[in-house]
Design goal:
Elements lengths: L4 H5 L13 H15 L3 E2 H7 L4 H13 L3 E4 L3 E4 L1 H10 L4 H13 L2 E8 L2 E8 L14 E3 L4 H7 L4 H9 L13 H14 L2 E4 L6 E7 L9 E8 L5 H5 L2 H10 L4
Length: 258
């Protein structure tokens, strides 16, 4: 960093202020610094910017990492984790996320979702019902499987190999006759998703429901957010659903800095 990490990361705390007391205050200060940085930050710069020693900052960050609030990267860098993104999304529904989803929903006329990766599931953070007469059963805050939903598979396809192996090693519930539960079949599907840039749930999570999803690109680390379009099979065939992909991608790109 070319400027003082403290003045850059914590704008409203003057240089020389004593560091906060208590692990909760330290954790909040570190999260604030990561949110303001908007990218991954080295431990040394993060500690200096927050007025803490490196051992103290590291100790608090380990707890936050275990809880999903921060993510670790190579070279001793840290960024906000999926729990932080989920909290931000659910705490502020009338943000640019909802605005972007409104544009997408109005363009395709179908139900649209946004969700974040949290552990071995995707959490629904936003939902806008389509203009048709059918209401999806999904709800904000609910979780969905990674292997059987479009958003879940889109996120799973971009996880590190060791995390994918962990997910596929678990017992995967067969939600419908179309659900992929065999590891080899799922690995092949994940390769296709990475190549084409989107995932499809073709009645794999729920009968008569077909969805397409893509991830929101991340500057550091694997993607933690995704957006999707959900349809009913007797209104929208697969060819028409594929026609929504350009609008879906445009929505995801608009959410990169949201």
């Amino acid at each position: 960093m070319t400027t003082s990490p403290r003045t850059r990361l914590v704008h409203d705390a003057p240089v020389g202020d004593p560091s906060p007391t208590g692990s909760t205050a330290k954790g909040l200060l570190l999260l604030q610094a990561l949110a303001q940085a908007g990218a991954s930050v080295r431990l040394a710069d993060l500690a200096l910017g927050c007025g803490m020693s490196k051992p103290t900052a590291h100790r608090v960050l380990v707890v936050l990492r275990d809880l999903g609030w921060v993510r670790t990267h190579e070279g001793g860098h840290y960024s906000l984790g999926p729990q932080a993104h989920a909290f931000a999304a659910m705490a502020a529904p009338a943000t640019s996320v909802e605005q972007s989803l409104t544009v997408l929903r109005d363009a395709v006329g179908r139900t649209v979702h946004s969700g974040v990766l949290l552990g071995d599931h995707v959490v629904y953070t936003h939902k806008l019902d389509g203009h048709d007469q059918f209401v999806m059963r999904s709800r904000l805050g609910a979780t969905a499987s990674l292997h059987s939903t479009a958003m879940g598979k889109a996120l799973l396809a971009h996880l590190p190999d060791d995390r994918v192996a962990e997910v596929l090693a678990a017992e995967l519930p067969r939600r419908t006759d179309h659900t992929l539960v065999e590891p080899a079949a799922l690995r092949a599907e994940l390769r296709r998703i990475r190549e084409r840039g989107y995932a499809v749930d073709d009645e794999e999570n729920e009968q008569n429901i077909r969805c397409v999803a893509t991830v929101v690109p991340e500057g550091a680390g694997h993607p933690v957010r995704a957006v999707s379009i959900s349809t009913v099979t007797f209104l929208t065939d697969r060819e028409e659903l594929m026609g929504y992909v350009p609008a879906l991608r445009q929505c995801a790109e608009s959410l990169v800095s949201a």
